[in-house]
Amino acid sequence: MIIRLWALLPLAAVLAGCAAGFNEGAYQDYVRKQSFYLNQPYVSAATTAPASRPAEPELAAGSTLGDYLRYAALHSPELESAFDAWKAALQRIPQVRALPDPRFTYRHYIHEVETRVGPQKNSYELAQTFPWLGKLNLRGDVAAEEARAAFHRFEAVRLRLFFRVHKAYDEYYYLRRAIQITEQNIELLNQGEAIGRRRYTVGAGSHPDVIRAQVEQGKLADRLTTLQKMRAPIVARLNAAMNRSVGAELPWPAQMPVAVGDWTSQQLVKWAGEANPEAQALDRQIAARRKGVALARKEYFPDVTVGTNLIETGSARGAMRPSDSGQDALIAMVSVNIPIWWNKIQAGIREARWLHHKARMDKAAFLNTLSADLETALFEFQDAGRKVSLYRDTLLPKAEQALQATNAAYSTGKANFQDFLDAQRVLLEFQLSFERSLVDRAQRMAELEMLVGKPLPASHMAQ
After folding, report:
1. Residue 207 and residue 288: Cα distance in Å, rounded?
2. Are the beta carbons of 163 and 446 closer than 8 angstroms?
3. Among 6, 171, 149, 14, which residue's Cα sits nearest to residue 82?
4. pLDDT tens across 129-180, in order?
5. Which of 24, 221, 321, 406 lies at a 20 to 30 A Cα distance from 205?
């Protein structure tokens, strides 16, 4: 009997998908093999690690923005979570493409059924259900499109992470420059105050000039203190983006490469439609929903179940035993479900079509928002570039000349101290506004690349 039962096992053989083992370190291995954190125009080629296995970045005094981006990619739990979602979606494909499990049924005859060849004692049945032609393929196609969407969402999370790191890094750079400029202006004001005291000592100046200088010194000292205390929250924001302790120390950024480019909003919208990962994820979602409609229509067709049934039969009783006494009965079986509840099937088709329509509307709404965001970011980028040129080429040189002339005139008694203070204030504000414009332009450049989904082709490096 055991030999007969084992003879049924070939009927249970089905195709199975191969699945890679679970590995908690898979994300770090994946990131180290990628070069997406080097595809930024802001990453200096001198800091590019070997493409095969980049070294673990160290955030030291000479670290560049590329090192910060690489560190964030390796340690971000948000990015690793999106990676896990993508990997999990991939494992869905072999599950939905596989056949249902075979069904084994055992029956024991409490009251044996007497037959000509002997009493029937036990029954062993093995059956396999085969979904209608095309169902498994469509289920796999839907899962594959959803996995592609998950990958594009992973890319979108990476771009948002890089933008946050870039923005915080730029703010950190601006803070350093603001402190340096304020310290330089304090030194300049100290020189003016010293001149005022000397003039007052020899009777060539007035005491109010000295008082005004000391008041201005106090105001600049207060501004400097505020700037210095801002370092902790800005460092905390940058550390948080890289999944580091908010209190961990970070060196001052050595430089901030500036990206320059000239594009139209039509070009940006076109590139974003081709490369934006969130738009691509929505495209894959639309494809999945479209295949879902086809899959819902397959419910009109039945699934087929085939199987075999072996009935264990004992020896015939009595004096006259037939020659086939005790021969087991082997039965082939085919069954189909009958999809007669058309209202249910039609409701499923309508649901699938509504979901497909929803996915298309989600894509249209996203593109509308994306176009508006691109338009705003492009305006702010161009406006910051205009201000950079204005301050660098016109306002700053004139403010420096005005301060030099006023300082010389004040030293010789040809100008009053208020003129010197006004010239010094204008220079300070212009210097800070110039640095702010540089940072705004770099941040808007990073935002544009996040929205487009790739480095902009017209950009180039300018130090």
Report:
1. 80
2. yes
3. 149
4. 999 999 999 999 999 999 999 999 999 999 999 999 999 999 999 999 999 9
5. 221
Residue 240 corresponds to which amino acid? A
* Buried-state track 143-161, b at ≥16 Cβ within 10 A, e below 16: bbbbbbbbbbbbbbbbbbb
**Residue 449 burial by CB count (10 A; 0-12/13-18/19+): exposed, middle or buried?**
buried
| Separation CA 245–CA 100 (nearest Å) | 49
Q: Between vectors from CA 389 to CA 387 and to CA 394, what angle results, nearest 5°? A: 100
* Segment (H or E) for 343: helix 342-390
Angle (CA) 43 48 49, round 5°: 145
Tens of pLDDT, residue by residue over 263-279, are 889 999 999 999 999 99
Asked if 79 and 158 touch (Cβ cutoff 8 Å), the reply is yes
Q: What are phi and psi of 130, to 5 degrees?
A: -115, 110
Question: Which is nearest to 102 in space by CA: 213, 10, 207?
Answer: 10
382-435: pLDDT as tens digits = 999 999 999 999 999 999 999 888 878 877 777 777 787 888 889 999 999 999
Q: What domains appear along the chain, each with residue ranges and CATH number?
A: 63-98+131-301+339-462 (1.20.1600.10)
Residue 100 CA to residue 92 CA, distance in Å, equals 14
Question: Tens digits of per-residue pLDDT, 361-370?
Answer: 999 999 999 9
d(CA 443, CA 424): 29
When pLDDT is cut at 50, 70 and 90, the band that residue 50 belongs to is: very low
